[in-house]
Design goal:
Metallo-beta-lactamase, Chain A; Arc Repressor Mutant, subunit A; 19% strand
Length: 303
Amino acid sequence: MATPVPVNRALDFVYGRVDRLTPLVRRVIAENPSPFTFHGTGTYIVGRGKVAVIDPGPAIAAHVEAILDAIADETVTHILVTHTHRDHSPAAALLHDATGAPTYGFGPHGSGRPEAGGEVEEGGDHAFVPQRKVRSGTTIKGKGWTFTALHTPGHTSNHICYALKEEAALFSGDHVMGWSTTVISPPDGDMQAYFRSLRSCLARAGTADRTYYPTHGAPIADPRRYVAALIAHREDREAEIARCLAEGIGTIPAMVARMYADIPAVLHPAAARSVLAHLVHMVETGRAACDGPPGEATVYRRR
């Protein structure tokens, strides 16, 4: 059995209400609940007077209006996007039109994995192109706040986390979520990159970053313990896959039925994508084999 991740599914919120979490951080949640977004997209407002908005969310008029109402007497100076899924970035254009603030992000959907030839999973926001491109180490400064960008590919190739210096906090997008593990869906999703990104976050957790603010779910108060559990959980999943291969279970549907018997069937397609990501990683590192390129219909064997 995979190491359990200490998820927290408790969340006190009302759609459209702006909640102050710290002296610098506020949050408003969009009404786009789903099995993959939890209660919905949490948009963060950072600063006072002149503010940054992180992950404006889906293009839902009521949500954009709630953001604008929250900062009615303030100025938006920066719009930061963690990655280009449809529940994170589409409202950036609407917020830019309303405020004139420039948008920031790594690049268009799939731009962190050019070798994939532009092929990416469903659910991407292909319209978003940041006006300001950021890379790991990029500093973004505003009135009373300072962010350092961290490129954290894995969930998507263009995923960026933003570290808030003044409060030792990390806005972790979907790279680390408090309510659930993260889906990794190839080819843009990359398990090997995800492991690397988790380990780079682990090196900072508890010191440079003492709190995580994921886009879905509640803040994570003990990120070092949490990220370590995520890494162990993923390593255990690969050990489970290795056991399946040793027993002659070589197809992804059969592996999902064995490994995810305790989760609702509606989530099995997403689980299949993560199992595929693990198998791609295992093939790349010589721990599994298959004929032809790895895919969901491929038959795998141990190596």
